[in-house]
Amino acid sequence: MPEGRFSGRCGLRSPSHLQGALDAGHADLLGIGRGSIACPDIPALLQERHLNAAAGGTSIASDDEPFGREPDGDLRLPSWVPQIPLVGAGVGVAWYNVRMRTIATSQLKKRVDGKPFPVPPPEFEMSGIEAMVRMWVWPEWRTMFLGALSVCCSIALIVLLMLLAGR
């Protein structure tokens, strides 16, 4: 049985990173899941950059420009929230969860000609707290009662985390 190589989420954010991992034999298959959520047109972008590199007599391996901006550095919790690593990871996951839901919802709606609407741009200005709330409070549930209940639960969760961090 042949040996397989696999690459998980390794921060491959540019064509040169992808090509370098393949050329070095570190992987046979690479995942660009988070990158494709932040920048859904990655396949077309890769094809365009590959064609441009070939036309210029170079390789895509020299293309160090990232596919697109990612929110990881922007999702900071307020200083009054305890700095618990799991909560920080949850904030990043919450942003990607909200982004995936936004993409899916946009593709469910159809224009008059039957085609889906274009994918809306990422909301990089979304705060960490907003991402957490929007992950748990779906737009379809935004009635006055459920919205208020969700906000109260979020506040209770934050207070509980602060109490636990103070122990």
Essential attributes:
167 residues, 2 domains, mainly alpha, 6 helices, Aldolase_TIM
Structure report:
With 167 residues, the chain is an all-alpha fold. It folds into 2 domains: 1-69, no CATH class; 85-165, no CATH class. Helix content is 50%, strand content 0%. The longest helix has 24 residues, at 85-108. The model has no long low-confidence stretch (mean pLDDT 76).
Instruction: Please provide the ordered H/E string of secondary-structure elements.
Output: HHHHHH
Count of DSSP H/I helices: 6
Structural class category: mainly alpha
Strand content: under 5%
Low-confidence runs? none
**Quick one: overall form?**
flat
Radius of gyration: 20 Å
Question: Number of domains in the coordinates?
Answer: 2
Mean pLDDT: 76
The portion of residues assigned to helices is 40-55%
Q: Termini distance?
A: 53 Å
Largest sheet features: none
| Count of strand segments | 0
A few lines on this structure:
This protein has helices spanning 15-23, 33-38, 42-55, 85-108, 128-136, 144-165. By secondary structure, the protein is mostly helical.
